[in-house]
Amino acid sequence: MIGHSGYFIADTTARLGAQFAVRDEPGITRQRLARTLGLREPAVTGPVGRLTAAGLVTKSTHPREHRAVVLELTDSGTEALREVDRFDADLREVLGEDGFTGAATAMHRLAYWES
Fold first, then answer.
1. Is the pLDDT reported for residue 114 higher than 70?
2. Neighbours of 75 (CB within 10 A)
3. How many other C-beta atoms are found inside a 10 Å radius of the C-beta of residue 77?
4. Does the structure show a pLDDT above 50 at 8?
5. Distance between CA 54 and CA 58 in Å, rounded?
6. Is the pLDDT of residue 110 over 60?
7. Three-state SS annotation for 63-84
8. CA angle, 22 as apex, 99 and 53 as ends, to 5°?
9. 3-state secondary structure of 59
């Protein structure tokens, strides 16, 4: 059961990281996204597919590279990240910067099952 929970957290973290990367670099390719996230290109296929299925990201053909796919946030994807930003701001207010950083570090360790 822990493995399944760990997978869920890691997958959710990958999707959120992908969503932020697409927001930061509109029109990013899957290859560039993989490099940005420190992953191999096949590793971003699943998270990108789930973001697309959820209506948070769109995929389209690259204008100059016929085999490349570019990614853009949808309005729903943009709003979802605004909610994450608001939640982070609220947590920082409640926990303070040190508490927020400690909680974020703990969540990262759980997501990647680090000691």
1. no
2. 9
3. 21
4. no
5. 10
6. yes
7. CCCCCCEEEEECHHHHHHHHHH
8. 100
9. strand
